Structure of Gamma-glutamyl phosphate reductase:
Amino acid sequence: MKTMISVEQQAIAAKKAAKTLSLLSENEKNEALNTLADHIEKNVKRILEANEADLHKGREKGFDEAYMDRLALSESRVLELAKGLREVSRLDDPTGDILSEWTLENGLHVQQVRVPLGVIGMIYEARPNVTADAAGLALKSGNAIVLKGGSSSINSNRAIVEVLHEALRETKIPAEAVQFIDSTDRAAAQQLFTMKEHIDVLIPRGGAKLISAVVSNATVPVLETGTGNCHLYIDKEADLDKALKIIVNAKTDRPAVCNAAETLIIHEDWLKENSSAIAEMFAAHSITVHGDEKAAENLPDVIPANEQDWSDEYLSLDIAIKVVSSLDEALEHIERYGTKHSEAIITENKDTAHQFMAIADAAALYHNASTRFTDGSALGFGAEIGISTQKLHARGPMGLPALTTVKYLMHGTGQTR
Amino acid sequence: MKTMISVEQQAIAAKKAAKTLSLLSENEKNEALNTLADHIEKNVKRILEANEADLHKGREKGFDEAYMDRLALSESRVLELAKGLREVSRLDDPTGDILSEWTLENGLHVQQVRVPLGVIGMIYEARPNVTADAAGLALKSGNAIVLKGGSSSINSNRAIVEVLHEALRETKIPAEAVQFIDSTDRAAAQQLFTMKEHIDVLIPRGGAKLISAVVSNATVPVLETGTGNCHLYIDKEADLDKALKIIVNAKTDRPAVCNAAETLIIHEDWLKENSSAIAEMFAAHSITVHGDEKAAENLPDVIPANEQDWSDEYLSLDIAIKVVSSLDEALEHIERYGTKHSEAIITENKDTAHQFMAIADAAALYHNASTRFTDGSALGFGAEIGISTQKLHARGPMGLPALTTVKYLMHGTGQTR
């Protein structure tokens, strides 16, 4: 019961702080972000000690290597948090931008102005870096933030927030603009789902399970960030060198991230012609191949693919292969199993590429390039708060403008209708 | 059970039609819209006969006058539907617009392009005009639409859709792009709430109850259109003439619409000085006044206001009066009871107006003008699909761009990361 009351009180305090914050100048916000960075740099040891407590618990619980890696901070990773805050201070502040303005015949002057959303609810899992990164992006765009991290990183998150609070007390931004739900209780997160009065948007960052729990149960609007079941379609007119290079990059550069490729869809004519080159590439990069019957007929060591191979992300050096006889068949497979994140076609035929990009329904569509570019910093947006796989509000990598809304401001001299 | 299967089949058919539609040119869509208008004009009698069946049922059920008015069509109202479709054909098609494009250092070319959302689910109440208006806006922006109207207008809606289908068969747009749920069963509407696979967005149009049922139960993203509990704040430095003119317009021009004013917040100093002018204006326009104690001290015939007077829309010639002693108190009242639709301040003090407009949180904020301008056609957007009172995706009157999303299209020559 104590937690229940306090989560709502925290959200109310965030909303109040958001009002003060929304009236600050860009300079005041930038100075504050640099003060946050200074304090992070001065407190590396303290943050690492807290992280060690999380790592110790994690080892006891027997978390796997990938999970422990997401959980772990190091001196350089903590310094990256400070660097990230300084980078955000240099991004353009989108708030206050006049997106359009005009005057009606009766003299009423209309402006459409970008303003902060208000209070952002951030629900995330292991990675403690989200604590500082999300706070920085929220504050720069004039929003307060309520942070609810995973229980496995609670000590790290708490230490980072303590440092941020100490720093904020030296700035014009009220410390209450960053709220930390200091609880490992799931009910605390669930309370945020329905606090429409105090929270303007929820952003879940983490695995498919977390995201789906938020989307299904929240009445607060959600910015859905995504799982990426990304496909590469190798057309019958694909160039072999480009295909090999792109497959290797999209699959092996960072297999655990959402813009990595999970399924290859290969035109059967092309596969027959290039099966030995493809097989060599898989072997050279230790890629485990799951596939349909036609894949098994043309390639060695193919594990029969089942429904889960088509629908789930591997996030590992596994890949699924679906062999098709037409572009339409490839598009149907993507429509059925894709998560609307990133899809690519490799072909030398521009018309085929155009058709693919017109029909496939995803945030990012690639012709002869790796899906790995679906990323705020790779595209030049600066830091991102996540990659949206939904169609409303923001789609693809979300920078600062995704954390804003608009107001119409109308100045008149007594106009009536 | 039959309905259950058929609603899903209709949504699947809509999704398939949306793909064909999304590849049509602006000209092909415009020609189709004009063909729809032609057919509406040729079938006025048929539509009016169907409407007469709904009106007959409505009279039997004893619906009130305002409701019957929303339900009723006339020759001129049907011809307005055709005129509306022709107007939509003349609006700019937002799809295909390149919102931004740039080339990365490695040569990867990035375009952010506007595309249709896909399939729109429209859930609405009495007004049969929504059937044609919403279909026109959806088709022009390349979207298929699934229409679920209220049971009281089902004959009118069915007749309009029959005419639209006959017309579509003469055009490049597949008739399946307009789906009509021919059922008075609420379960049919509820099925649409969770059809995330086939429906990209739900737009509820109607009363607060309908909208809240959709928002609370849908997992499909919702474009929330709004109830408008709009306030006029009469500051201590308000000009009397402007205040009177704006109050009369915002309250009496069309009391039943969402941008009409429902509550006056009046600074007590101003009220004391201008009470007789205000009282005369109320009497002259047959406005019934509900108010707090201070209002009753300064004005005649004030009915004591309760919580509901502050929180609900009257949609009639009733008005609530809250007397305050500061701008802050006015802003607190708006924050507590406002629906984030439209809020106005009447004052000659620009600083006070600026503060009001910076702090009040609503789609549209007015200084010395009537709230009645929050309307797509009044602001020059052309037809609107509704007025959004949410902060994500679209805020305020929603024209064609609100029915679109974006895709990033990346053209490369083998780029990897």
